[in-house]
Amino acid sequence: MDQLLQHLLNGLLLGATYSLLGIGLTLVFGLMNVVNFAHGEFYTLGAYAAFAVLTLASVNFFLAIPLAIAAGALVGAVCERGLLRPLRAQSIDTVMLVMIGLWIAMQNAELLGWGGVAKSVPTPFTTEPLVLGAVSVAPLRIFVFTVSGLLILGAHLLLARTKLGRAMRATFQDRETAALMGVSIERIHTITFAFGAGLAAGAGALLGPVFLLYPSMGDLASLKAFSVVILGGLGNFGGAALGGLVLGIAEELGAGYVSSGYRDAVGFLMIVAVLLLRPSGLFARAERVG
Amino acid sequence: MKQATRALFTVFVTLATAVTLAAPAPAQETVKVGVIQPLSGPVAASGNYVRMGAEIGRDWINARGGVLGRKVELLIEDNKSDPKEAATAAEKLIVRDKVPVIVGAWGSSMTLAAMPKLEEYGVPMVVETSSAATITKRGNPWVFRISPPSEMEALGLEKYLRDLGIKQADFLAVNTDWGRGAVGAFGDVLKRSGAQVGTAEFMEQAATDMNAQITKVKAGGGDTLFLTTSVEQITLVLKQAQEQRLTRKIITTGGSSSPSQLIKQAGAAAEGTYHILFFLPWFPEAMPDGRLAKAFVDEWAKRGHPFEGLTEGFRGHDGVLTAVEAIRIAGKPDPKAVREALWQVSVMGVNGPIKFEKDGPAGKESGQSKPSIFIVQVKDGKIALPEFAAKR
Predict the structure, then answer these.
(1) On the CB side of A221, how many CA atoms lie within 13 Å of its CA?
(2) What ipTM score was computed for the predicted complex, to two decimals?
(3) Considering the domain B28-148+293-368 in this protein, what is its CATH number?
(4) Candidate CATH numbers 3.40.50.2300, 1.10.1510.10, 1.10.443.10, 3.40.50.1360; the one for domain B151-277
(5) Tens digits of per-residue pLDDT, B99-129?
(6) Which of the listed ranges A53-62, A153-162, B137-146 does the model predict with the highest average pLDDT?
(7) Which residue of B has its CA nearest to A95?
(8) Residue A202 sits in which domain range?
(9) B209 with A2: Cβ contact below 8 A
(10) d(Cα B183, Cα B240) in Å, to the nearest integer?
(11) Is B343 at the interface with chain A, CB within 8 A?
């Protein structure tokens, strides 16, 4: 029983990180119809940006996270203006190839800039775990869990309740009509992509201190993000959040009670099952955005 | 469409230029040695340290006048921590660069993937890190290993088992040939000595969250955890084990744990852990050739390489030393002659004497050297020889 509780807690904490990875991708993928292969690289960028301001500029840890998000959003905006805008009229395949190129270029730039040796990010949190009865958890993980939840909620509110969010949704549903209504289409494209990139960078800044930083860290993050988006349904925010939790808990229980060697396989088997039985995602409603 | 065609054309021209520019300059008077290491990907840190050590080996040999009157040149390829890439790198070094001998390829799965290429083209490889037993048991006569297989490591630990007081041991290992091989090898030695073997858990090479495995190990109730993986994952496991209050004696195997890096990155979580190593840069005088070991540590520092890389870096030095000595004995940089010569190599490396004995099926034996094996412990944030090991 103690073991099950600890597994569920582990799964929940891990799942929240997957949700956070998934929402940025689902936004860009679901709204803009851009398969962002470089999503994981924005995650890596956020982690290294936080590391840089923490160790080189000795900025406060809590300030490093918004700075990393800003760095991610800025680079995202530049990529949108430089790469995606000229390709607006091209097919999704062309854009996909360009994104793969961006992924490779960014990863190698990180390798060149930071070297291959893993780095660890210092945090103000104690490494002594909090003991809650039979289970224990690190204070840093609770902080990450809370901030992830707030970021997901904030992103959802921005999209659903604000004028900017309405303009975003309108643009990707029908760009001509949105333009006629006075929405600045080009600006919305840039903002949406920068928003997605910023969320990925935020995930990196939060998870970097939990794990380790190395240039290829984004590959695993991308893989999990795509899994979450498929589970939750394209462009479905709540779906991505729940999908992340479901994936985290499934992996954890699979590793705990089936076989740890097949941990990732458990997650992917679940995705195959979802694709076969509910191809539009586990939590898809009749209608979805995008 | 027109745009796409133009883009493709640009890609083609770029690639063509890159290939032309990268083509080797004609007939330099150097002796080439191929090196395959993971310079990027999840285990890149280790691969880069081995590369740095190999470069020291090369520079020292060249300072002594090189080999066969020529300078030694290293052709270093990145296997990206990926077995498929290791095979590609081996083929590239053999077919395009025509190296007479290769040093590589760090991970057992990477080495195993490169091995069929050695046999196909007939080029020998000095294996500097890989631990899986199968490497020298498969009947590939082009393989010469200077690192200990897990079996040899486990036997090296056997004499300390009573001092360590292991009653029941669990395993957590990377899900590769190396990890799975180590679980078998250490399990056998433990069983023979009367200890119980509990659960064996595995993790993917790039995995970062090992909480599920740790929870499972914790429920098992052993007193010792054997940990076999790269330093990056060891760091994460130690931190996550601390979060879950896993109170076990932790022993890392394979020699790639870089305890100094663990102290830096895992902090208090590394306290008390034991590490099986093949080089003691903290106590170079305790090595078989103390002067050589000291010189290597000094040279490493002079080049500004991080101290924590030394436990991995010496492998590169010893690998290049072995390969070049074989070329010297062969008298020509010819793969077949170098393979014959490898059987006669007898040199002193940073780890100790290197000399190959036959291993594997009769008639197709691989070479296996008998390296020195050590154990250290993290005590008060420093590396120490455990009392029982210091006495002997």
Answers:
(1) 39
(2) 0.84
(3) 3.40.50.2300
(4) 3.40.50.2300
(5) 999 999 999 999 999 999 999 999 999 999 9
(6) B137-146
(7) B4
(8) 20-216
(9) no
(10) 21
(11) no
